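[step 3/7] inverse_fold.run input=structure_tokens len=239
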């Protein structure tokens, strides 16, 4: 049996007549953390939304756990085990508790409540603020709520759109620390980012530029590539 959890093959899509992705293929294996890195406007959000069924695919296929998903509704993809954290991450006009319970709506209610309690154990800040509106949380706390909310759906793969957006470096570290904990539980991640800090937790990396995948490989392989080293790490290689 293949260990591929998610396979995206030759994805092409866009908005109206404007094409945004060209023949994009990527895969995430079970328990793997994959970071999709690219600059502003590269197409990261478009790709993540296409995987979740929020942007319609023009051509290509999305396979999860061996099942074709490209024509399934978003909620079916979530039920199948693909968790999603958008850039905003949570519903601002709901409480912390409501955000977590709404995310677990597809699970049996007892299981959902138990899972939410275990998430409070992992994220004590959220426990203290369970009745608070998400809008009253700090930017960093909202992101942690976003992570917890996505986890409350009990995903096998967590797909995240720029978890660092709007965060100070201290909170970026905090989010990375939270993600590390869950990598060890067997969860797989696909993280779209422009912040290279996230490469710290990457088993593999794809670069996305101008709607096309450029490089696919490991972080050490990125460092071995002079052009990538310059583009992403800002250093010039000695001749
Ligand atoms: P950012 O880091 O700024 O969010 P991104 O890598 O996520 O960038 P996308 O938001 O996916 O990139 O944008 C990819 C391309 O698609 C850009 O050229 C963008 O202008 C275009 N685009 C995105 N959303 C729309 C839309 N709703 N209508 C038309 N064009 C869009």
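[step 3/7] decode complete -> sequence:
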């Amino acid at each position: 049996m293949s260990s591929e959890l998610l396979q995206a093959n030759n994805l092409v899509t866009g908005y109206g007549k404007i094409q945004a992705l060209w023949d994009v293929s990527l895969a995430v294996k079970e328990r793997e953390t994959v970071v999709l890195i690219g600059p502003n406007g590269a197409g990261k959000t478009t790709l993540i939304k296409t995987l979740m069924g929020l942007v319609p695919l023009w051509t290509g296929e999305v396979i999860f756990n061996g099942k074709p998903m490209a024509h399934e509704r978003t909620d079916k993809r979530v039920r199948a085990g693909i968790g999603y954290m958008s850039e905003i991450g949570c519903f601002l006009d709901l409480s912390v508790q409501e955000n977590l319970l709404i995310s677990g709506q597809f699970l049996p209610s007892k299981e959902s409540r138990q899972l939410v309690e275990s998430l409070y154990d992992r994220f004590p800040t959220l426990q203290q603020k369970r009745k608070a509106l998400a809008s009253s949380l700090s930017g960093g706390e909202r992101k942690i709520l976003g992570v917890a909310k996505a986890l409350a759906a009990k995903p096998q793969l967590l797909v995240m759109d720029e978890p660092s957006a709007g965060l100070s470096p201290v909170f970026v570290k905090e989010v990375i620390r939270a993600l590390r904990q869950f990598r060890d539980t067997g969860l797989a991640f696909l993280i779209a980012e422009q912040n290279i800090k996230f490469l710290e937790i990457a088993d593999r990396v794809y670069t996305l530029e101008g709607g096309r995948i450029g490089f696919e490989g490991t972080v050490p392989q990125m460092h071995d590539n002079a052009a990538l080293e310059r583009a992403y790490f800002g250093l010039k290689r000695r001749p």
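[step 4/7] annotate
The beta strands are 4-15, 18-29, 33-37, 59-64, 67-68, 82-85, 157-161, 188-193, 204-209, 212-217.
The chain has two domains: 1-81+155-239, 86-154.
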